[in-house]
Design brief:
Order of helices and strands: EEHHH
Number of helices: 3
Shape: elongated
Strand order of the largest sheet: 1-2
Structural class: mainly alpha
Length: 73
Amino acid sequence: MTTGNVPTAMKDTGGSEEGYRVLSYLLAGPIFYGGLGWLGDHYLLTTFLLPVGIVVGTALSVILIIRRYGQVS
């Protein structure tokens, strides 16, 4: 049942680690760049930087995911 000190069930994650990493990229990009856009809107008294930041953050997240995980090995 166990291999060394780590149970077999904990070693075989079935790709869930990569899934959680992709999810964190998809959440972190829009939150970070949306936050920067919100700060820019707040200090520059504009209203367009928040949506631009969210879109740019999402696009950069998708690009990062494709570059890291889109390669077939």
